[in-house]
Amino acid sequence: MMAGGYYGMGGGFMWLFPLIGLGIFLYVIYMIFNRTNLTNNTGVNSESALEVLKKRYARGDITKEEFEEMKKDLI
Length: 75
What we know:
mainly alpha, 0% strand
């Protein structure tokens, strides 16, 4: 029986802890850059509130009266 050998203190999974740490680090870096890209995004996909309101009215989500009142609030 080998005492204190390669498998003695932690087994063959000691390589797993640095990989988990690296994965967590990379995930945090990704989330930081992803969040800043979303907050600074002024690209093609950004819609004005009036455009969103028009789409909601076109889909039938709101009535004409609701549309007109919300439109007055925006303009």
